[in-house]
Amino acid sequence: MSCGGCSFAGQSTAVEDTFVGVRFGEETNLTLCRTGGELLARGDAVIVSMKPGPAYGRVEKSPMPVFKPCQKSSARRLIRRADGADREARERQLTNQVRGKTFCRERARALGLEMKVSRVDFSLDSRHATFYFTAERRVDFRQLLRDLKARFKSRVRLVHVGPRDEARLLGGVGICGRTLCCSTWIEDFRPISIQMAKRQGLSLNPSKISGTCGRLLCCLAYEDDDYRRRRPSERSWSGGRDGGALPVLS
């Protein structure tokens, strides 16, 4: 097996280590981790080397078959099985995340900042914290940042994200009934235009072609290239709007 055209072409695909799939919190995707040969069972609590620091997770798939060299090179290192101290640290982490979100909202309101706090992430040792928020316009959060640092005695980052990034952070279920693509496998957002919906003969009702983020559905781009290549005569059989295919969404 080889990865044609990639930087790992020609490298060995032999499995030299034991790999498992670890889930952190409520994340949809599993993180591939190398165990250093240690055998783990599904449900085992583990500590994994992550940025900015060690993270607490649970094994969801063991073993996890890995054949591509590029996957092996990006696998995270499993530090150890979680012990009692790690479980206590995890409880403090979860508590800080709830308190952090509440405190940040209250201080933002008191300071008159028009912002919505979407998510708060603390590191396992509580030394680092990241607060994600959305806002319609630029926010001067310097005083809020000082208040957060003083309250939690941590290195704090405030990150302004857009609606699509917020949906990725929070996750959810789309109108198709499946987990949001942005929170599972999409790495980079493509520009989406209303022309894509028109080419596919879809209803232009915003409620039909918008995602939970309030923006146009990312999946409108999946078949757009194919619709661009088709000639009008090849599309006319469907009887769809503007000569396109029949609506996929009802």
Walkthrough of the structure:
The protein is of the alpha+beta class and 250 residues long. 29% of the residues lie in helices and 18% in strands. It folds into three domains: 19-82, no CATH class; 87-161, 2-Layer Sandwich (GMP Synthetase, Chain A, domain 3); 188-243, no CATH class. The protein has helices spanning 69-74, 84-110, 142-152, 163-170, 194-199, 206-209, 224-229, 232-235; strands spanning 19-23, 31-34, 45-48, 55-61, 76-81, 116-122, 128-134, 155-160. The protein has a five-stranded mixed β-barrel. Strand 3 and strand 4 (55-61) form a beta hairpin.
Break the fold down into its secondary structure elements and pairings.
Layout: E1 19-23, E2 31-34, E3 45-48, E4 55-61, H1 69-74, E5 76-81, H2 84-110, E6 116-122, E7 128-134, H3 142-152, E8 155-160, H4 163-170, H5 194-199, H6 206-209, H7 224-229, H8 232-235
Parallel strand pairs: 2-5, 7-8
Antiparallel strand pairs: 1-2, 1-4, 3-4, 3-5, 6-7
Helix pairs in contact: 2-3
